[in-house]
Amino acid sequence: MKIFQQILDLNQRRRGFHIITNEVVNALPQIGEIKTGICQVFIQHTSASLSINENADPTVRQDFEMYFNKVVPENDPDYRHDDEGSDDMPAHLKAAMLGSSVTIPIRNGRLALGTWQGIYLCEHRNYGGSRSLVITAWGE
Q: Of all residues in the chain, what percent carry a pLDDT higher than 90?
């Protein structure tokens, strides 16, 4: 069994959904040494999230942003946590809905994503800053 782990610090991105698959793969080239295994990507933040979805058509990512803004609006008068701005509590809720990690099979030294799948960084803050990911891969 081989186990590899790396921290990936992503540069700040604008609010929205961003494909980060290549950055994840490039951060942990040891994935190539694993024939059969698992890769977990975990985000160390509570106002951004990770997801796997469409990697080809950018309108999918735009529609994700539109949908989540409708479902979890800013400036809801019922929010109590509002010290960090109108986008903060909605960001926490969106992150809880989407999740803090993704798990991807490794097959023959590559992430076994489907043809149209990519890893999304889901940035829910207007100015979220840099984001840190812990990437762990294990297998044989």
A: 99
> Which residues neighbour 77 within 8 Å (Cβ) at sequence distance 6 or greater?
none
* φ and ψ of 80, to 5 deg: -100, -30
* Alpha carbon distance 30, 85 (integer Å): 40
Sign of CA dihedral 91, 93, 98, 102: positive
Q: Which domains are present in the chain?
A: 2-74+83-139 (2.60.120.460)
Model confidence pLDDT, tens digit, residues 20-42: 999 999 999 999 999 999 999 99
pTM above 0.85, yes or no: yes
Neighbours of 56 (CB within 10 A): 10
